[in-house]
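Example record

One chain of 98 residues, shown exactly as stored in the release files.
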Amino acid sequence: MGKERTYDKQAILDDLVKILEEMTGDWELDYEGGINPGTRLIADLGFESIDVVQLIVAIEEHFGRHDLPFETFLMKDGRYVDELVVSDTVDFLHGHLG
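Predicted structure tokens for this chain:
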């Protein structure tokens, strides 16, 4: 087993922003200022549940990890969260990518 790559928060943020920009590049967005840590995926980018699934797949592919516990991130108290924020997603990935 090779040495695992370590990721700092800025590198994860940069990668996540690129993934989100690729996903939303051809969407008709009424969102100014570009994707940043405060961007909300549902309220700002118009994400629907299928988009969240596609984002998870893209993240898993990008980082080469299929063992990330997204269910702990997407659910609180047995219910799906109402919103996902870029910075929260970065924190989640940073905590699990080591």
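Notes: The chain has a mean pLDDT of 90.
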